[in-house]
Design goal:
Helix content is 18%, strand content 22%. The protein is built from three helices and seven strands. It starts with a helix and ends with a strand.
Length: 133
């Protein structure tokens, strides 16, 4: 339980929303800072009930990944089929393995099997990519 209370499902850094697979707008009561804070509190409370209960906003598995949920949660969302770049903040995510960094709107997927990473400086994102052979 102590470990679970320290987990962060997502974070805001320099105007960017960072998470494993992305925050879907349908998981927010409102698409602003208030909605994001409420989602953070809700997931933090639900983490204490793992593994007996699965927080939908965190662990939903959408149909594009073989699940029965309408869209994936923060750790399962599919970049190509479910991710939407419609929130107030651009997002930096991974989870959907891609050959090279990919952009959708203002957001980026950097999951290239440890071949890419981003550096945030004063709100500006610099992506570094080194293909693995």
């Amino acid at each position: 339980p102590q470990f679970l209370t320290r987990l962060q499902p997502f974070t805001l850094a320099q105007g960017w929303l960072l998470s494993h697979a992305g925050v879907h707008p349908r998981h927010l009561a409102s698409e602003d800072q208030t909605g994001l804070q409420a989602l953070h509190r809700e997931i933090a409370a639900q983490l204490l009930h793992l593994p007996s209960r699965r927080p939908e906003q965190l662990a939903a598995v959408g149909t594009s990944r073989g699940g029965s949920d309408a869209h994936g949660g923060i750790v399962w969302q599919d970049w190509f089929e479910e991710f939407e770049d419609s929130l107030e903040w651009p997002q930096i995510v991974g989870h959907t393995l891609i050959a090279e960094p990919n952009q959708k709107g203002r957001s980026f997927n950097l999951d290239t099997k440890s071949g890419s990473y981003g550096i945030l400086t004063a709100g500006r994102l610099e992506i570094r990519y080194e293909p693995k052979s």
